[in-house]
Structure formats: structure tokens, C-alpha cells
Amino acid sequence: DIQMTQSPSSVSASVGDRVTISCRASQGISSWLAWYQQKPGKAPKFLIYAASSLQSGVPSRFSGSGSGTDFTLTISSLQPEDFATYYCQQANSLPWTFGQGTKVEIK
Amino acid sequence: QVQLQESGPGLVKPSETLSLTCTVSGDSISSYYWSWIRQPPGEGLEWIGYISYSGSTSYNPSLKSRVTISVDTSKNRFSLKLSSVTAADTAVYYCARGAGTYFQHWGQGTLVTVSS
């Protein structure tokens, strides 16, 4: 299985801050990576696919980059509704696997 | 807009079989890939398996010996069976629709507790 490792596990930030979350794959996955946002008690929400393509309806302050083994999710200006846990997911090979999550908390 | 809704018992006894159904509205289950994903309380996400529009299945090797995913096209729903459950199978179970690789639409999730 491909292991996905996110860092940091949590980050404290203020509204308006730029936030960057990293995701590293245990082997190359080309650009087969997605990002999800999960709020407490809710299902994950699909944000980004193919490492950098924004899902329809997702605000442009979210962006993704990377290929191979190293990927980044960036929130350019954190908004109150962005406080949540973010997960990466590799879709290069079965079984699909997720990172352990990064919690974005209010500073 | 596609909607998915999980249903099934919230409490299952150890060694028994967990059975859940995902009812799909707003889309035909004869298209796309339909997955089950679970999340133990306070933990991360684990993909369980999928059934495709053609009826083919793929399961996570960690659960493969205990998992069956099936589809009922007449009722536009698909199902999960997980046998010989233990407390480690306690989780929120989500159904999701994808195009084969990503999970674009999710159900709200249902908590299944394994306990006697």
C-alpha cells in the first residue's frame, strides 16, 4: 500500500493567514492526488483533484501543487469557514489511501 | 444533484455481520464507481472498497476476506457486508460516488458501533 504522510498534524492560524499543508507519498504517484475538507460531524468535501485542479464551486483561495511524492495544499487567505481537518488521498494505485489529516485551528 | 444516504443498524454484536445500504438519488447507479469508506471515532479515513458501473468490485486487502459490496440497480442502491466484526470495526461508515479514483460525492455517514 502507498502510505500518505501529512504535515503538520495541526496548525493554528488566524483569519486572513496563508496556510500551507504538506502531503508526502511513500512512492511516486504522478499527479494522482486529491484533497478533502472535513468539518466536525460532517462528511468530507471534495476540494482538489489531479493535485492542482479545483473542484467546481470551491473558492479560488484553495490551491494545490506538486507531483511525484510531494504535494501541497495552500489556503491563500484563511476564512472562518475554513477551520476544519484536511485530508490528502492518493489515487495512483489500489488500495486508495488517505493521509492522517491536518487540523486547521483558530489561533 | 446526486445525493447518497446510508442506512442500517447502528449497533452490531461482535462476530456478527455488519450490513449497510446506500440509496442513491439524482443519478443512476449504472454509472460511475460506488465506494464505502469508514472513519473510526477521532481517526482518519479508510477506503473499504468499490463496485463499478459494470459490476466489478475491488476491496482493500486489509478487509478483503470479510467484505462484500453488491448493487441493486432496480432500487438504485448498493450495499456493504462486513463479516466477523470486532470492536475495531466501530466507525462512521460513508458511501461515496467517484469517477474511479476520487470521491466526489459523499453520504452523511452512519455510525456503527460493535458491542455486545
Furnish the topology, listing elements before pairings:
The complex is a heterodimer of chains A (107) and B (116).
Chain A (H helix, E strand, L loop, with lengths): L3 E4 L2 E4 L5 E7 L7 E6 L6 E5 L3 E2 L7 E6 L2 E6 L9 E6 L6 E2 L3 E5 L1
Parallel strand pairs in A: 2-11
Antiparallel strand pairs in A: 1-3, 3-8, 4-5, 4-9, 5-6, 7-8, 9-10, 9-11
Chain B lengths: L2 E5 L3 E2 L5 E8 L7 E7 L6 E7 L4 E3 L7 E6 L4 E6 L8 E8 L6 E2 L3 E5 L2
Parallel strand pairs in B: 2-11
Antiparallel strand pairs in B: 1-3, 3-8, 4-5, 4-9, 5-6, 7-8, 9-10, 9-11
How would you explain this protein's 3D organization?
The complex is a heterodimer of chains A (107) and B (116). Chain A has 107 residues and is an all-beta fold. Chain A has no helices and eleven strands. Chain A has strands at residues 4-7, 10-13, 19-25, 33-38, 45-49, 53-54, 62-67, 70-75, 85-90, 97-98, 102-106. In chain A, strands 2, 4, 5, 6, 9, 10 and 11 form a seven-stranded mixed β-sheet that branches. A four-stranded antiparallel β-sheet of chain A has the order 1-3-8-7, with no helix packed on it. In chain A, a hairpin with a 6-residue loop joins strand 4 (33-38) and strand 5 (45-49). The mean pLDDT of chain A is 97. The model of chain B has no long low-confidence stretch (mean pLDDT 95). In chain B, the strands form two sheets. In chain B, strands 2, 4, 5, 6, 9, 10 and 11 form a seven-stranded mixed β-sheet that branches. A four-stranded antiparallel β-sheet of chain B has the order 1-3-8-7, with no helix packed on it. Chain B contains no helices and eleven strands. Chain B has 116 residues and is mainly β.
